[in-house]
């Protein structure tokens, strides 16, 4: 028999219930069972007057055991475990540390007193997994912290720090003690001396918010939910339960929780959660030691160079930034300082840490000799092969052996960049996303000759920067931009055929994207796509359809937000943009002479085409081995391209939609355009075999 992860220890008048279930003390079936047994042991212990519930390791119970989700539930159920704690005739004090989330906080709410060690964070993040609290969180929290605080924490899923938790009444205090056990010992002594009896949250009256307050809160929740059902369901359940007796409220909450457990949104959000964790697990890199990185060189101090410098400095590393001349270097330093001051304003960085890193850890230079000591150099100069190759030749000449040489290119061939050096094994692509100090995605582009040790170093760097690394092979645009080009082209074709860019944006925002493709284009600047089209014009296949309307906008000086006008008009009145009444005339002119220019597209058709293009390109990327697993693609789209998390990523979405239906759609689209719409053989095969992309997720990535 395996030992229980929960122990009860009788120590005179105080009993200790300790949980030891590494790594995060999640509420597995064994922990639930152990808690019941420990409470029973405490109840039967005639000398103990107060029990202290605490956890060993790095955190109090961090939450449910997510791997049990979607499987049949095993007794004892969590709500019953918690009511056993709450109904204990003698007081139980929980002492929290680490991240006390979801079921962990619900267990603590079953106790009669709660202390939190400094640095503790509490929260009910169930909505971020498509769920809501299911073990009393939405019933007990409003009774303890009031309506507004409970709605805020439960519908946003955000975490509160110990100080805030004290202010909200969730926590009684922050002890000054060596560890949770010592804090509990002192508190228990106090309770015994004061002869305190258990205070049950279930016995507190439920708050009675005014109708207006409920209405305003509902509007806020619905607005920020943006298509997610869990926050709305959590809100409505919480509100309705306020008017019920405690036990009825508990049953009502549980049934809403179980309903949500069955939804595709829950499955998608859990998929996203695990995909992020698996993306960074690379079977082929097991046992390979990454190189140590302390000194980082960055070449080019433009938009990306500045953002990358900020990300690297924030991780505590040292940065030397090279620019073309002193003036450009000064501009880059000023831009970086402004960026870091923004982080200070947002409370992400202390003013002292900001000053210190800019003074002691950052310098600019114009001479590459300054990089002689660098462990890693990240190139972020203009997107031009000749310029980049010239930079890598210089790096090859000055950098020490063993330095990792990385390019932040968006599209260019990393093999061709590596080839100009005498050390292609040390060259890799590190494709950051803008703004690089904020976006979590890092595409790690492994070239033909990149050494596994260098790839391992890139994954370690991603982790040090707080980013999710995803491995990609070399191709035009790697995983993300290659897919984006394809689905943007599908959108452009619809515009050429009669759809309004505004309808396309609206349909995709309704689908759940943060922005539609034309809003994104305006934000990024329409000149970028224009330059790429110009570059490729000479080698373009004559069957390729050109979005002439996009070229016309740029030629008329309408570059998007930065010029106040692109697809939309941006001014003081509508800083977020409004449709331009003149656009339709331009489109009509461009469409004349195009085949099928009078087509109309329903929202459903717009989504079907956009998503089919995305999924089909994803399948080709898999087939070519550019991405090792469908989940890698999902993570790229989720973290780099605003794909709605509650849809799990494009490949997960495709599985839920049915690969057969998508393959049929592609065949239908190909009837009028068989140049653009060519079904990926992999997609066709999986569809024919009735399989899903998920069945390909078993691998652990390549080396
Ligand atoms: P940018 O034009 O803002 O900055 C480029 C900087 O490099 C300029 O400040 C320029 O003075 C400097 N530079 C040029 N040649 C140099 C040399 N030989 N030595 C030192 N400095 C030199 O460009 P941005 O947007 O920062 O892009 C840089 C790279 O990052 C490009 O390869 C781009 O494709 C890639 N990228 C851009 C993203 C974006 O959203 N802007 C996203 C991901 C990658």
TrEMBL record:
<dbReference type="Pfam" id="PF00378">
    <property type="entry name" value="ECH_1"/>
</dbReference>
<dbReference type="InterPro" id="IPR036291">
    <property type="entry name" value="NAD(P)-bd_dom_sf"/>
</dbReference>
<dbReference type="InterPro" id="IPR029045">
    <property type="entry name" value="ClpP/crotonase-like_dom_sf"/>
</dbReference>
<dbReference type="InterPro" id="IPR008927">
    <property type="entry name" value="6-PGluconate_DH-like_C_sf"/>
</dbReference>
<keyword id="KW-0511">Multifunctional enzyme</keyword>
<keyword id="KW-0576">Peroxisome</keyword>
<feature type="domain" description="3-hydroxyacyl-CoA dehydrogenase NAD binding">
    <location>
        <begin position="295"/>
        <end position="471"/>
    </location>
</feature>
<keyword id="KW-0442">Lipid degradation</keyword>
<dbReference type="InterPro" id="IPR006176">
    <property type="entry name" value="3-OHacyl-CoA_DH_NAD-bd"/>
</dbReference>
<keyword id="KW-0456">Lyase</keyword>
<dbReference type="Pfam" id="PF00725">
    <property type="entry name" value="3HCDH"/>
</dbReference>
<keyword id="KW-0443">Lipid metabolism</keyword>
<dbReference type="Pfam" id="PF02737">
    <property type="entry name" value="3HCDH_N"/>
</dbReference>
<keyword id="KW-0413">Isomerase</keyword>
<dbReference type="InterPro" id="IPR006108">
    <property type="entry name" value="3HC_DH_C"/>
</dbReference>
<protein>
    <submittedName>
        <fullName>3-hydroxyacyl-CoA dehydrogenase NAD-binding domain-containing protein</fullName>
    </submittedName>
</protein>
<feature type="domain" description="3-hydroxyacyl-CoA dehydrogenase C-terminal">
    <location>
        <begin position="477"/>
        <end position="570"/>
    </location>
</feature>
<feature type="domain" description="3-hydroxyacyl-CoA dehydrogenase C-terminal">
    <location>
        <begin position="606"/>
        <end position="691"/>
    </location>
</feature>
<comment type="pathway">
    <text>Lipid metabolism; fatty acid beta-oxidation.</text>
</comment>
<keyword id="KW-0520">NAD</keyword>
<dbReference type="InterPro" id="IPR001753">
    <property type="entry name" value="Enoyl-CoA_hydra/iso"/>
</dbReference>
<keyword id="KW-0276">Fatty acid metabolism</keyword>
<keyword id="KW-0560">Oxidoreductase</keyword>
């Amino acid at each position: 028999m395996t030992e229980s992860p929960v122990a009860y220890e009788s120590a005179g008048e105080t009993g200790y219930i300790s949980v030891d279930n590494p790594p995060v003390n999640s509420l597995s079936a064994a922990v639930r069972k152990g808690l019941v047994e420990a409470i029973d042991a405490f109840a039967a212990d005639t000398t103990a007057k107060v029990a202290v519930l605490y956890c060993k390791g790095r955190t109090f119970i961090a939450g449910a055991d997510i791997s049990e989700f979607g499987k049949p539930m095993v007794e004892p159920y969590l709500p019953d475990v918690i009511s056993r704690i709450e109904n204990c005739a003698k007081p139980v004090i929980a002492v929290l540390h680490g991240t006390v989330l979801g079921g962990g906080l619900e267990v603590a709410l079953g106790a009669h007193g709660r202390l939190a060690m400094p640095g503790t964070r509490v929260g009910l993040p169930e909505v971020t997994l498509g769920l809501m609290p299911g073990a009393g969180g939405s019933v007990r929290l409003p009774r303890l912290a009031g309506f507004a605080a409970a709605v805020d924490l439960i519908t946003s899923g955000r975490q509160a720090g110990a100080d805030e938790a004290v202010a909200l009444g969730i926590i009684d205090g922050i002890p000054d003690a060596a560890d949770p056990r010592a804090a509990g010992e002192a508190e228990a002594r106090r309770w015994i001396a004061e002869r305190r009896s258990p205070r049950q949250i279930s016995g507190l009256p439920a708050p009675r918010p005014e109708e207006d307050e409920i209405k305003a809160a509902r509007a806020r929740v619905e607005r920020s939910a943006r298509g997610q059902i869990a926050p709305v369901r959590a809100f409505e359940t919480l509100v309705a339960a306020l008017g019920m007796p405690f036990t009825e409220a508990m049953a009502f909450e549980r049934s809403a929780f179980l309903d949500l457990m069955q939804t595709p949104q829950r499955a998608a959000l859990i998929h996203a959660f695990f995909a992020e964790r698996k993306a960074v697990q690379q079977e082929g890199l097991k046992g390979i030691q990454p190189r140590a990185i302390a000194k980082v060189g960055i070449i080019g101090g433009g938009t990306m160079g500045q953002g990358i410098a900020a990300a690297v400095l924030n991780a505590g590393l040292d940065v030397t930034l090279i620019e073309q001349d002193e003036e450009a270097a000064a501009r880059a330093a000023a831009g970086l300082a402004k960026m870091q001051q923004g982080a200070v304003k947002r409370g992400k960085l202390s003013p002292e840490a900001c000053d210190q890193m800019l003074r002691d850890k950052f310098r600019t230079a114009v001479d590459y000799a300054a990089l002689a000591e660098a462990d890693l150099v990240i190139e972020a100069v203009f997107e031009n092969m000749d310029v980049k190759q010239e930079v890598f030749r210089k790096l090859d000449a000055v950098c020490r052996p063993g330095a990792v040489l990385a390019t932040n290119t968006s599209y260019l061939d990393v093999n061709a960049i590596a080839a100009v050096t005498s050390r292609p094994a040390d060259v890799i692509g590190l494709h950051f996303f803008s703004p690089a100090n904020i976006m979590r995605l890092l595409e790690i582009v492994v070239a033909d000759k990149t050494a596994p040790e260098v790839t391992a170093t890139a994954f370690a760097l991603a982790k040090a920067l707080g980013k999710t690394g995803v491995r990609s092979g070399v191709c035009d645009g790697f995983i993300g931009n290659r897919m984006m080009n394809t689905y943007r082209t599908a959108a452009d074709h619809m515009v050429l055929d009669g759809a309004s860019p505004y309808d396309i944006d609206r349909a995709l925002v309704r689908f759940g994207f943060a922005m539609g493709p034309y809003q994104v284009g305006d934000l990024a600047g329409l000149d970028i796509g224009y330059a790429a089209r110009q570059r490729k014009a000479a080698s373009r296949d004559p069957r390729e359809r050109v979005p002439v309307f996009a070229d016309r906008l740029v030629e008329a000086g309408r570059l998007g937000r930065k010029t106040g006008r692109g697809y939309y008009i941006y001014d003081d009145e509508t800083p977020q943009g409004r449709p331009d009444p003149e656009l339709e005339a331009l489109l009509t002119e461009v469409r004349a002479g195009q085949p099928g220019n009078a087509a109309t597209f329903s929202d459903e058709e717009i989504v079907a085409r956009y998503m089919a293009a995305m999924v089909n390109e994803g399948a080709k990327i898999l087939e070519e081995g550019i991405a090792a697993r469908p989940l890698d693609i999902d993570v790229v789209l989720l973290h780099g391209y605003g794909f709605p998390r509650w849809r799990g990523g494009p490949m997960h979405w495709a599985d839920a939609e049915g690969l057969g239906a998508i393959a049929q759609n592609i065949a239908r689209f190909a009837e009028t355009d068989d140049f653009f719409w060519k079904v990926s053989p992999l997609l066709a095969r999986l569809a024919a075999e009735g399989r899903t992309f998920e069945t390909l997720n078993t691998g652990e990535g390549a080396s």
